[in-house]
Amino acid sequence: MSMYTEPYNFQTKKQFREAVEVSKAAVYLYQPGPFGTGTVHKAGKFTVEGPKYPQPHKWYATVWTDDSGKVVKVK
To answer: Is-cis flag, bond preceding 56, omega within 30?
Structure first.
Protein backbone atom coordinates (compact mmCIF):
# COMPACT_ATOMS: atom_id res chain seq x y z
CA MET A 1 0.00 0.00 0.00
CA SER A 2 1.15 3.50 -0.84
CA MET A 3 1.59 6.07 1.90
CA TYR A 4 1.86 9.79 1.17
CA THR A 5 2.51 13.04 3.01
CA GLU A 6 -0.37 15.27 4.01
CA PRO A 7 -1.28 18.15 3.47
CA TYR A 8 1.68 18.77 1.14
CA ASN A 9 2.64 17.07 -2.13
CA PHE A 10 6.44 17.30 -2.05
CA GLN A 11 8.09 16.97 -5.46
CA THR A 12 11.47 15.95 -4.01
CA LYS A 13 12.72 14.19 -0.89
CA LYS A 14 14.91 17.23 -0.21
CA GLN A 15 11.82 19.49 -0.02
CA PHE A 16 10.18 17.00 2.34
CA ARG A 17 13.21 16.72 4.62
CA GLU A 18 13.68 20.51 4.78
CA ALA A 19 10.00 21.08 5.62
CA VAL A 20 10.17 18.65 8.53
CA GLU A 21 13.65 19.26 9.91
CA VAL A 22 14.33 22.93 9.12
CA SER A 23 10.99 24.72 9.04
CA LYS A 24 9.24 22.30 11.44
CA ALA A 25 6.15 22.08 9.20
CA ALA A 26 3.28 19.94 10.46
CA VAL A 27 3.44 17.00 8.06
CA TYR A 28 1.32 13.88 8.56
CA LEU A 29 0.94 10.59 6.69
CA TYR A 30 -2.01 9.42 4.65
CA GLN A 31 -2.75 5.94 3.30
CA PRO A 32 -5.47 6.06 0.61
CA GLY A 33 -7.62 3.31 -0.81
CA PRO A 34 -10.23 0.85 0.38
CA PHE A 35 -7.75 -0.97 2.62
CA GLY A 36 -5.86 2.15 3.71
CA THR A 37 -6.20 3.64 7.15
CA GLY A 38 -6.62 7.26 6.04
CA THR A 39 -4.61 9.69 8.14
CA VAL A 40 -2.13 7.93 10.42
CA HIS A 41 -2.46 9.01 14.09
CA LYS A 42 0.13 6.91 15.87
CA ALA A 43 3.82 6.80 16.65
CA GLY A 44 6.05 4.57 14.58
CA LYS A 45 8.35 4.03 11.65
CA PHE A 46 6.83 4.17 8.16
CA THR A 47 7.82 4.30 4.49
CA VAL A 48 6.38 7.06 2.30
CA GLU A 49 6.63 7.91 -1.38
CA GLY A 50 6.11 10.96 -3.50
CA PRO A 51 4.91 12.83 -5.30
CA LYS A 52 1.32 11.68 -4.91
CA TYR A 53 -0.54 9.56 -7.46
CA PRO A 54 -1.21 10.08 -10.40
CA GLN A 55 2.28 11.57 -10.76
CA PRO A 56 5.05 8.97 -11.06
CA HIS A 57 6.82 8.35 -7.75
CA LYS A 58 10.32 9.81 -7.78
CA TRP A 59 11.37 9.47 -4.15
CA TYR A 60 10.92 7.20 -1.14
CA ALA A 61 11.73 7.88 2.51
CA THR A 62 11.66 6.23 5.91
CA VAL A 63 10.00 8.46 8.50
CA TRP A 64 9.28 8.42 12.22
CA THR A 65 6.12 9.91 13.71
CA ASP A 66 5.16 11.01 17.22
CA ASP A 67 1.99 10.00 19.11
CA SER A 68 -0.15 12.45 17.13
CA GLY A 69 1.10 11.12 13.80
CA LYS A 70 3.25 14.17 12.99
CA VAL A 71 6.44 13.36 11.09
CA VAL A 72 9.44 14.16 13.31
CA LYS A 73 12.34 12.58 11.40
CA VAL A 74 13.09 11.78 7.75
CA LYS A 75 15.80 9.43 6.56
So the answer is: no
